[in-house]
């Protein structure tokens, strides 16, 4: 399949032709992209040959899930300046996990023994209130102020901290909102406060 764009580098594939493509490039969306004779030696050949063709099959599902989201925040990254900074979020500020979601092990000279079932049953019997308690562990040293101090020194809004929450990771993988149930009890409140700050900031800026 030859392109119709003449002799210039990458001619003929319309808007789907990389700037550094070979002459007579069939275009990145062609079924034969990366496989035709003009593709030989092109720096994009392997990418074109293996990349999926056509529209993203996940777009309908994404559109459906986003249809009920009232406020959407687009996060982009590019070369050069970033323009106006909305604020800084300290991610993975520390582990926050419900005791009921934790795994318990008993160390020994021969290794570790999983005692999760026994431990949870013991807690449930002796101190059931502890099952709703969050266990906290600082993952990084923030004794010098961390991101919040940096924002203060640079005059940038500090929006908040998002803890490491295994349940939040599961929600992301499953494509569900962390606000729809009580599983993300460690991270959902923090995210809600950050979203409220962003909305307030967008209305005043």
UniProtKB/TrEMBL annotation:
This is Uncharacterized protein. It comes from Urochloa decumbens. SUPFAM superfamilies: P-loop containing nucleoside triphosphate hydrolases. InterPro entries: Mrp/NBP35_ATP-bd, P-loop_NTPase, YlxH/NBP35. Residues 1-16 have a biased composition (Gly residues). The keyword ATP-binding applies. Keywords: ATP-binding, Iron, Iron-sulfur, Metal-binding, Nucleotide-binding. Residues 1-45 are annotated as: Disordered. Pfam families: ParA. GO terms for molecular function: ATP binding; iron-sulfur cluster binding; metal ion binding.
């Amino acid at each position: 399949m030859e392109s119709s764009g003449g002799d210039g580098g990458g001619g003929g594939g319309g808007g789907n032709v990389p700037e550094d493509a070979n002459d007579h490039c069939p275009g990145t969306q062609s079924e034969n992209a990366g496989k035709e004779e003009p593709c030989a030696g092109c720096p994009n050949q392997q990418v074109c040959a293996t990349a999926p063709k056509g529209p993203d099959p996940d777009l309908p599902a994404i559109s459906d899930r986003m249809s009920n989201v009232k406020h959407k925040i687009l996060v982009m990254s590019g070369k050069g300046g970033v323009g106006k900074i909305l604020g800084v979020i300290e991610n993975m500020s520390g582990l926050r996990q419900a005791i009921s979601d934790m795994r318990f092990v008993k160390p020994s000279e021969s290794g570790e023994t999983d005692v999760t079932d026994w431990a949870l049953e013991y807690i449930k019997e002796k101190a059931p209130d502890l099952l709703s308690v969050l266990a906290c562990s600082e993952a990084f040293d923030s004794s010098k102020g961390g991101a919040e101090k940096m924002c203060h020194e640079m005059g940038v809004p500090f929006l908040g901290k998002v803890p490491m929450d295994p349940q939040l990771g599961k929600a992301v993988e499953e494509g569900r909102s962390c606000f729809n149930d009580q599983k993300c009890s460690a991270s959902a409140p923090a995210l809600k406060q950050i979203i409220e700050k962003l909305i307030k900031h967008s209305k005043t800026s």
